[in-house]
Write a structure and sequence with these properties.
The complex is a heterodimer of chains A (230) and B (117). By secondary structure, chain A is an alpha/beta fold. In chain A, 42% of the residues lie in helices and 15% in strands. Chain B is 85% helix and 0% strand. The mean pLDDT of chain B is 80. Chain B is an all-alpha fold and 117 residues long. The chains are: A alpha/beta (230), B mainly alpha (117). Chains A and B meet through β3 and α3 of A and α4 of B.
């Protein structure tokens, strides 16, 4: 249990009351330190996460997943003894054993960040057809993910060290933070590796997924990035 | 006629490039105000002497003054839309920082954790 005392798991959550307690309990079975960022939801996500043993930070208004991740990281990196960090989805599609593997790799291979990929060998079961076709293309289109030879442009499972956490400053509040994260990796020359992970596409997680049209927002935000004041 | 169109398209592209490349500092905001004053003066003049716009249009190779005004309006509209969008994005970022500060102030720490440290 005390093995992972220096690891912090950041879970951004928006109206996830029905699953958050299970997800937090699952993570806490291995990692004692969990911070759940309640992104200004209308249900009792925060209370349930707190009851399950997570630290809870609550946005007074809804800001979006990117902002929630940034808040969680800022909280976790200020905790005494925090050395390693992971971002983890609240809807139960990520698996704790993948985090353990990524963490092992981060430490044994002397990396700064390990990102999950869904496309290492074959696309996951139950992944919607359009996503299966488009996500690898998006990964190829983005200049920064090409530079890093990434196969998955928008995977929410990431494990990284304090160097990354301290320098992290996500300005894209919404879903564009994933590409912003990749750009930051390129700009800061962080050492990165991809780790094949298993994503569980449950009916619940699919109902909360992103419509593909939202990709347009991500492209426009990518063009604007860096032109705004920080 | 062709070169007029090229000129207009060039103006739009230049405007976009300017907007995207410049930070929203005090200087660029000042130029926006200067541009606005010119716009208002021009508008009043066009109302008082509408036929003069046709003369200016002819200089530029455009048939009617009304067309010239339309082109100018389209460019002005693009300019304001984009600058408003950039401003909103900027505000959104500060708003997120404010909300984050509030959130971190009110963090709830589980009881078993306070004992460990």
């Amino acid at each position: 249990m005390s093995l992972y005392r220096d690891v912090w798991i950041v879970i951004p959550a928006y109206n996830e009351a029905s699953v958050i307690a299970d997800v937090v309990a699952d993570v806490r079975a291995v990692f004692p330190n969990v911070v759940c960022v309640d992104d200004g939801g209308r249900d009792d996500t925060g209370d349930r996460a707190f009851a399950a043993g997570a630290h809870v930070v609550r946005h007074p208004v809804n800001l979006g997943q990117g902002a929630a991740i940034q808040t969680g990281i800022e909280y976790a990196r200020a905790r005494p003894g925090a050395q390693f960090f992971a971002t983890f989805d609240a809807d139960g599609q990520h698996q704790v054993k993948d985090v353990v593997r990524m963490l092992d790799r981060l430490q044994s291979e002397d990396l700064d960040i390990v990102i999950g990929t869904r496309f290492a060998d074959r696309p996951p079961d139950r992944m919607p057809m359009l996503k299966r076709l488009l996500l690898p293309i998006v990964a190829k289109l983005s200049r920064s993910s090409r530079q890093l030879h990434l196969t998955d442009a928008h995977n929410g499972l990431r494990v990284f060290n304090k160097t990354v956490a301290d320098a992290l400053n996500l300005t894209m509040n919404g879903m564009s933070h994933a590409s912003e994260f990749v750009s930051l990796i390129v700009e800061n020359h962080w050492r990165i590796a991809e780790q094949p992970v298993q994503i569980l596409y449950t009916d619940y997680s699919m109902s909360k997924g992103q419509p593909l049209v939202n990709g347009v927002n991500i492209i426009v935000d990518g063009l604007l990035r860096g032109r705004l004041r920080r | 006629m062709i070169w007029t169109k090229a000129l207009l398209i060039g103006a739009v592209v230049l405007l976009l490039a300017y907007l995207f490349s410049s930070r929203r500092n005090a200087q660029s905001r000042a130029w926006v105000k200067v541009g606005y004053v010119f716009f208002v003066v021009g508008a009043i003049y066009a109302i008082l002497r509408p036929n003069d716009t046709t003369v200016v249009a002819h200089w530029l190779g455009i048939g009617r003054g009304a067309d010239l005004l339309l082109y100018a309006l389209v460019i002005a509209f693009l300019f304001t839309t984009i600058s408003a969008y950039m401003r909103f994005k900027d505000l959104e970022l500060r708003y997120a920082q404010l909300a984050r500060a509030v959130a971190l102030e009110g963090a709830r720490v589980p009881e078993d954790d306070t004992r460990q440290v």
